[in-house]
Amino acid sequence: MTAQRICSLGELVQDEARRFEVDGVAMAVVLDSNGEVHAIGDTCTHGDISLSEGFVDGDTVECWAHGSAFSLRTGKPLNLPAYEPVPVFQVTIDGDDVLVDPAVKLALN
Ligand code: FES
């Protein structure tokens, strides 16, 4: 599987998460305040809640339901009640295009 274009950089709003589905994989994509783009699994590991409906703060997104914040870099929850990480996907910027490969999950550490 190869990386697929999901949108242009200009379509992302800084510090807001947006939901995309690529090959059936739902992901929350965030342009952070440093201009970096992140893609993590969209479903909170505590419940069936879309993280793209959550609140972006720095390099984290907080689930609106019970407040677990997930690192956009590692996918790890930084506070309870969630304790399982979400996947983190490889993002490639090609000119103005944002590409994500849903098959490439970055190592969690
Ligand atoms: S559903 Fe996300 S923290 Fe509970």
UniProtKB/TrEMBL annotation:
Database matches in PROSITE patterns: RIESKE (PS51296)
Quick check: keyword Chloroplast in the entry?
Answer: no
Enumerate the UniProt keywords alphabetically: 2Fe-2S, Dioxygenase, Iron, Iron-sulfur, Metal-binding, Oxidoreductase
Q: Which GO terms describe its molecular function?
A: 2 iron, 2 sulfur cluster binding; dioxygenase activity; metal ion binding; monooxygenase activity; oxidoreductase activity, acting on paired donors, with incorporation or reduction of molecular oxygen
Outline the extent of the Rieske domain: 4-100
Q: What Pfam families would the database entry show?
A: Rieske
What is this protein identified as? Answer: 3-phenylpropionate/trans-cinnamate dioxygenase ferredoxin subunit
Q: Which organism is it from?
A: Microbacterium immunditiarum
